[in-house]
Design a protein that fits this description.
With 309 residues, the protein is α/β, with parallel strands linked by helices. The protein is built from twelve helices and eight strands. The chain has two domains: 1-37 and 288-309, no CATH class; 38-283, TIM Barrel (Alpha-Beta Barrel).
C-alpha cells in the first residue's frame, strides 16, 4: 500500500493480460521472481530455510497455491504440506507453516477445506509446530474466519493462528469478535486488488488502522505477529510497546523473503524476534504480482534483470 493507488491498479491490469502471464510464468524466476520466491520445489525452499535459520531468523513457510477448484488439487497441496512438515522436523528447521484456505479447497466446499486443514494441523501439532491460516482477497474473509473459529474448537492459540488485513474496513470489527479466542494474529496491510467499497484506498488510513489494530490486540494481552516493512510504523509501535511495558515474548516482527533484508538484520540485531516469510512452489505468479503491486519500484528490478538477459 506504499505506492499511489493507480500504479497498483496498472500492475494488476497488466499482469492479468494472458500474454504477460505466459511470458512471466515462463521466464519469471530468471527475471526476478527468485528474489521473492525461495524456489519452485521443496528442496530449494529447505536450502533457503537452513541458510536463514543459520543467520538467526525463525521462519514461516508457505507452499504457494490458491483458488483451487478441484478436490484432487487440494489433496495434492495437503500432501505437499505434510512432506514440508516432516522435512522441517527431520532437519530441525525453526519454522511454522502458513496455508491459504482457498488452496485447501474453500471454493469447492467448506467441509473439504476444514478436513484438509485438520490433516495438516494434526501432523504439525504432533511435531510441536504452529500453523497460520492465511487471509486472501475479501470474498474469502468471512469463510476464512469461520474456518478459523471452527479449528479453534479443537486447537488452541499456540497451535493455530490467523491473519487480519488492515486495509479492510471490517478488520476492526473482526478483531473485536475474535477477542474471546485470545488469538495469535498476524497483522498485515493487505496486498490484493480490493475496491474502495471494502478497503481503504488511502495509505494513511491503512497505516492508521494497522497501528490501531496492533495496539488494541496487544493491550488485550494477545500475541501479535507484526508484518510490515515500514520503518516509521515499526518505530511507532515499538514506542507504544515500551510505554505499555509489553514484553518481547508477546509479539514478533515478520517480513517477506527478499524484501528489505537489511532492515530484517537490523531488527534481529536489536534483539527482536524477526521471522522471515518464505514461499515456494511453481504456482508463484499471483504472489509475485502482489509483491510488484505493493512496491512498483520492484518492477524496475525485473526490467533490469530482463535487459541483462
Amino acid at each position: 500500500m506504499a505506492e499511489p493507488h493507480w500504479s497498483r491498479q496498472l500492475i494488476f491490469a497488466v499482469a492479468g493480460n494472458p500474454a504477460v502471464t505466459r511470458f512471466v510464468t515462463r521466464y519469471g524466476m530468471r527475471l526476478g521472481a527468485s528474489r521473492f520466491v525461495a524456489g519452485e520445489d521443496l528442496a530449494s525452499a529447505l536450502d533457503v530455510a537452513r541458510r536463514l535459520n543459520g543467520e538467526g531468523f525463525p521462519l514461516a513457510v508457505q507452499f504457494l497455491g490458491e483458488h483451487v477448484t478441484r478436490a484432487e488439487a487440494a489433496a495434492e497441496a495437503v500432501e505437499e504440506y505434510l512432506r514440508l512438515i516432516d522435512a522441517l522436523q527431520e532437519r530441525g528447521i525453526d519454522a511454522y507453516v502458513s496455508i491459504k484456505p482457498s488452496q485447501m479447497g474453500l471454493e469447492v466446499d467448506e467441509e473439504l477445506a476444514y478436513a484438509n486443514c485438520r490433516r495438516i494441523l494434526d501432523r504439525a501439532v504432533a511435531a510441536g509446530r504452529f500453523v497460520r491460516i492465511e487471509m486472501e482477497d475479501s470474498p474469502y474473509t468471512e469463510k476464512t474466519l469461520r474456518l478459523y473459529r471452527r479449528l479453534r474448537e479443537t486447537y488452541d492459540s499456540g497451535q493455530v493462528g490467523v491473519v487480519l488485513q488492515a486495509y479492510l474496513y471490517r478488520s476492526a470489527r473482526d478483531l473485536d469478535e475474535l477477542a474471546d479466542l485470545q488469538p495469535n494474529i498476524r497483522f498485515v496491510k493487505g496486498a490484493y486488488n480490493e475496491p474502495p467499497s471494502v478497503a481503504y484506498p488511502s495509505k494513511a488510513d491503512v497505516d492508521r488502522n494497522f497501528r490501531e489494530l496492533v495496539q488494541r490486540h496487544l493491550e488485550r494481552g494477545h500475541y501479535a505477529a507484526i508484518a510490515t516493512h515500514d520503518d516509521r510504523l515499526i518505530e511507532e509501535l515499538l514506542d507504544f510497546i515500551e510505554r505499555k511495558g509489553i514484553g518481547r515474548d508477546r509479539f514478533e516482527f515478520q517480513m517477506l523473503y527478499g524484501i528489505r533484508p537489511q532492515l530484517q538484520r537490523q531488527m534481529r540485531d536489536r534483539g527482536y524476534t524477526m521471522r522471515v516469510y518464505i514461499p515456494y512452489g511453481r504456482d508463484w505468479y499471483g504472489y509475485f504480482v502482489r509483491r510488484l503491486a505493493e512496491r512498483p519500484a520492484n518492477v524496475g528490478f525485473v526490467l533490469r534483470s530482463l535487459l541483462r538477459g
